[in-house]
Amino acid sequence: xxxxxxxIIFSLVFTILTVLTGCEPLLVLDPKGPQAERQAQDILxxxxxxxxxxxxxxxxLIYILIKYRASKQSADYEPPHIxxxxxxxxxxxxxxxxxxxxxxxxxxxxxxxxxxxxxxYENQEPLVIYxxxxxxxxxxxxxEEGIETVNYLNIPTHRPLEFKLYSYGPITSFWIPQLGGQxxxxxxxxxxxxxxxxxxxxxxxxxxxFSGKGFAENTxxxxxxxxxxxxxxxxEVRDRADPLTExxxxxxxxxxxxxxxxxxxxxxxxxxxxxxxSDHSQGSAESDEDSHEPQDNSNH
Length: 300
Description:
Elements: H1 2-21, H2 34-67, H3 86-115, E1 127-134, E2 137-142, E3 147-150, E4 152-156, E5 161-167, E6 172-175, E7 183-185, E8 191-195, E9 201-207, E10 219-225, H4 227-240, E11 242-243, H5 246-252, E12 261-264
Parallel strand pairs: 1-5, 4-10, 11-12
Antiparallel strand pairs: 1-2, 2-3, 3-12, 5-8, 6-7, 6-9, 9-10
Helix pairs in contact: 2-3
């Protein structure tokens, strides 16, 4: 019996270790930006508090099972009448209230932090990117640079990013786990998401909201690079990419999966986002003074 028990325990431990060694690190716990860093701290804080509660509860359970286990008593034994203990009741009710209150305060503070532009970069002008979704692809418009990409996103590091999110189909959710939390993109309104990347690298982005049969592949690639490399990439796109016409953009909106593609110009000129009806002037390679910011830009 003992050998069988040892074999079961050994098998269980071996299985757990084997599974854990094959797991990749959770992206939300490997932050590469200030917003994601704050959210990772909150997740670890919640896990720590919950772990402490579970350990205490299991310790109390084991103690109670041992101390008050069934024992042989005489047939006429009658257990003593015990009233409720006010201290025990106060602890059982008070501690959960304190935990919930503390986590609520932390959550509200974090919500204000991640919804605002990162403090580390609040004195810099943000890069505004219009991120729109369609079945089942992502369109990224850079109005200041006068370019547009499909299913991939290049961003500079150490600069605030201001995403304007909307959808040309069902509600989707824009999410880059290593840079910040998800936010919904809807057909009839613009939502704003503030992010930033602290270091160069390649990240995964995706639609985190089920939006039909193509949802599983509704992903995009993100590459963070230095500002110099980003400017060189923009200049290369302006020189080599084909212009984005209204006819081409309507073809892109057709349901289906596509690879990556790049264009000069953006669809914002002939198909403005919800709530914006003015033309967006495109940037030029010769001078940044020729570019105009969208009317919806926030002041920082």
